[in-house]
């Protein structure tokens, strides 16, 4: 299931706990607490950083128009993902992607090249949206909802990534003195882009070479969250993205920190997702939901947090 060191856990180790969890009565907090205390032991992974992410809502069209001119792309068939851990044990959990040319894996086009038309004319456009900045932040979040002119809403989910490393564009604004480090947030970056204008915004977005491809999720109910790395819908406030090389997906994670308003945040979540910017043992990204309110909360969530991962007891909780 991923993870290494003391947080490496196999599916077999979790199976008995999962079977018992399915028998717990819904809404019985006391039974759930007793189950967790009996089956798991907490492992402190240290003081780290807690951020938030959400499912954004965009406006789009199935066809390109003067208003809807920014595409969301389907995964190109030639994109090859590589699990590096299959080749070297010390790279377990690490992945890259590229394309094969002359028998060699070579880098896939980066964000700037794709924006300049590297994939144009191939019919890979799933939908066209009206704001390149909205599309950029959708790439960071990994999933979203696109409202079409006829009232339909498309759910789009992560289908792959071009293999280039994620670069946080807020770092570039700090380095050039445009933003103070403590002032960096999604809202602050958006405000800078709006004031700087389309050309400057495009240049800043191109600093992040990572580019995400999407797939349409036609059967996902409106009331369900987006699908995470584990293949299950995410739950607002209870699903968290982690570094899978440090923490096995599927494990409970206790978070102790502060919310964006400065109040205490004490939360038990489940490691259900991953992200390009989530690296390190004490790093977590809490899913806040969908819509404007969730985006406001996620965009301002960045603070120190104490993280504890709950791992199965060696005796199985007997």
Task: Please describe the structure with a list of short key phrases separated by commas or semicolons.
2 domains; 32% strand; alpha+beta; Ribosomal Protein L25, Chain P; 318 residues
Task: Walk me through what this model shows.
Helix 6 (186-196) crosses helix 7 (198-206). The chain has two domains: 5-53 and 229-312, Beta Barrel (Barwin-like endoglucanases); 57-216, Ribosomal Protein L25, Chain P (Beta Barrel), CATH 2.40.240. The chain has helices at residues 11-21, 29-39, 111-115, 132-141, 169-175, 186-196, 198-206, 292-300; strands at 40-55, 57-61, 70-73, 80-83, 95-101, 104-106, 125-129, 144-147, 153-161, 212-216, 239-241, 252-258, 264-273, 283-290, 302-312. The strands form three sheets. The chain has a six-stranded mixed beta barrel. The model has no long low-confidence stretch (mean pLDDT 92). It is 23% helix and 32% strand. Strand 12 and strand 13 (264-273) form a beta hairpin. With 318 residues, the chain is α+β, with helices and mostly antiparallel strands. It starts with 10 loop residues before the first helix and ends in a 6-residue tail after the last strand.
Task: Describe the structure concisely for a colleague.
This protein is α+β, with helices and mostly antiparallel strands.
Tally of DSSP β-strands: 15
Q: What is the overall number of helices?
A: 8
User: How many domain regions?
Assistant: 2
Q: What helical percentage do the residues reach?
A: 10-25%
User: How many whole angstroms does the radius of gyration measure?
Assistant: 20 Å
Write down the secondary-structure element order. Answer: HHEEEEEEHEHEEHHHEEEEEHE
- Major sheet: arrangement of strands: 1-14-11-13-12-15
CATH architecture of the largest domain: Beta Barrel
**SS-based class:** alpha+beta
Mean pLDDT: 92
Shape: globular
Task: Classify the fold: give the CATH topology of the largest domain.
Answer: Ribosomal Protein L25, Chain P
Q: Low-confidence parts lasting 5 or more residues at pLDDT below 50?
A: none
* Cα end-to-end separation: 23 Å
Biggest sheet descriptor = 6 strands, mixed, barrel
CATH top level of the largest domain is Mainly Beta
